[in-house]
Design brief:
Layout: H1 3-8, H2 24-31, E1 34-45, E2 48-60, E3 63-72, E4 79-88, E5 93-100, E6 107-113, E7 116-122, E8 130-134, H3 149-162, E9 163-165, E10 172-174, E11 179-185, E12 190-206, E13 209-219, E14 224-230, E15 236-242, E16 247-251
Antiparallel strand pairs: 1-2, 1-16, 2-3, 3-4, 4-5, 5-6, 6-7, 7-8, 9-10, 11-12, 12-13, 13-14, 14-15, 15-16
Length: 252
C-alpha cells in the first residue's frame, strides 16, 4: 500500500486549508503542507451547472484541515460561501468556520466544548454570537449544506473501517456492512443520524469516459444519495447522484 493510500485510509483523514496570502510566513506554511486532495466539484441541476465547489484537503504539523468555497456557476463566478475546518490527527474537531460572502456578518463557528460541540451563530446585525450546545462528541463528522467535500471525508472515514489492502489483482477487500454516524449540520443548527454502506463496483460514464468505480450509499431519514469513489486513486470522490433533487455532483 503506497504512502498516499495509507494517508487516506486512516481514521485521522483530514487536511490542511489552502494558503490564500502571499506573505513569507504563509509560503513557509504552504511548503510544509502535505496535500491529500484538491480540486473542484461541478453541481448540476437538470443538466445545468449551477455551482462549483473548489476545495483543498491537506495535512501539516500533525493537524489537518479542509477549506472549501462555493461559487455561482463556474469557479470564476460569484463567490457565495466558504468554510474552513481544522482537526487533530486523531480526528477531534479544533474549529469549523462558515461565512456567507453576500453578508460576511452572517457567520458561524463550531468549537469543542469539553468533550462535546458548541456552535456560535452570528446573524446579521448581531453584536455578539448566540450559542447552541450539542451533545455530540468532538469526533462527530461535520456535514454542512452544499459542501460536498464533507461527504468525501465521511466516505473516507467509513472506508477506513470497512476496507483492508488485498492481494493482487484485488487492490482492496471491503466489508458491505453499513455504518451509522451522528453528524452535525451547522447551517441548519441540527444533528442527523446517517447511514453509509458499500454497494459494490460499477462501471459508469464520467464526462463521456467509462470508469469502474466503487459505489456507496449515503442515507438519512428523508434522503438517499449515491456516491462513487475511485479505489485506484486514493478513494477520491468522483460523483454524487441526488435523484430527489434532480442533481448530480461531478469532479472537474
Amino acid at each position: 500500500m503506497n504512502a498516499a493510500a495509507k494517508l487516506v485510509l486512516t481514521a485521522s483523514l483530514l487536511a490542511l486549508s489552502m494558503v490564500a496570502s502571499a506573505s513569507d510566513k504563509d509560503k513557509e506554511k504552504a511548503a510544509a503542507t502535505s496535500y491529500v486532495d484538491s480540486g473542484a466539484f461541478g453541481v448540476f441541476v437538470g443538466g445545468q451547472r449551477v455551482m462549483t465547489e473548489t476545495f483543498h484537503i491537506g495535512q501539516a504539523n500533525g493537524n489537518s484541515s479542509i477549506s472549501s468555497q462555493i461559487n455561482e456557476g463556474p469557479a470564476t463566478g460569484t463567490l457565495l460561501q466558504k468554510s474552513d475546518m481544522d482537526m487533530t490527527g486523531s480526528g477531534e474537531l479544533l474549529r469549523y468556520n462558515w461565512s456567507q460572502e453576500k453578508d460576511p456578518r452572517s457567520s458561524l463557528t463550531v468549537v469543542p466544548n469539553n468533550e462535546f460541540l458548541l456552535e456560535k451563530i452570528t446573524p446579521p446585525g448581531a453584536t455578539k454570537p448566540a450559542e447552541q450546545p450539542f451533545l455530540m462528541t468532538n469526533k462527530s463528522p461535520i456535514m454542512d449544506n452544499n459542501f460536498f467535500v464533507h461527504r468525501e471525508l465521511l466516505a473516507w472515514r467509513f472506508l477506513a473501517a470497512a476496507c483492508q489492502p488485498g492481494t493482487a489483482p484485488v487492490l482492496w477487500q471491503c466489508k458491505h456492512d453499513p455504518a451509522e454516524f451522528g453528524v452535525l449540520v451547522p447551517q441548519d443548527r441540527t444533528s442527523l443520524h446517517v447511514r453509509m454502506s458499500l454497494v459494490g463496483k460499477e462501471t459508469i460514464s464520467i464526462r463521456g469516459t467509462e470508469r469502474e468505480l466503487l459505489r456507496l450509499k449515503l442515507a438519512g431519514e428523508a434522503f438517499e444519495w449515491a456516491l462513487w469513489v475511485d479505489e485506484k486513486d486514493q478513494f477520491k470522490l468522483i460523483k454524487i447522484s441526488i435523484p430527489e433533487a434532480n442533481t448530480e455532483v461531478v469532479r472537474d
